[in-house]
Amino acid sequence: MSITDxxxxxxxxxxxxxxxxxxxxxxxxxxxxxxxxxxxxYIRAEITNCDTIECPLNLYRPYRKAGDxxx
Length: 71
Fold this sequence. Notes:
Blueprint: H1 3-9, H2 12-22, H3 28-39, H4 44-48
Helix pairs in contact: 1-2, 2-3
């Protein structure tokens, strides 16, 4: 599947962030947001509640709860 095909199938609200990330034009923060959003099936609450400690981006994910730590 091409990048364009993939972007066409995702919710419109996340499309620009994703395209910016895959083109290398996004900030590291926005690239992580695009990755986490796709990984969690485009469900913001799932990103907030992500407990996949094996993921190297876990501590950098967007929408973290106050008080989240690496414990």
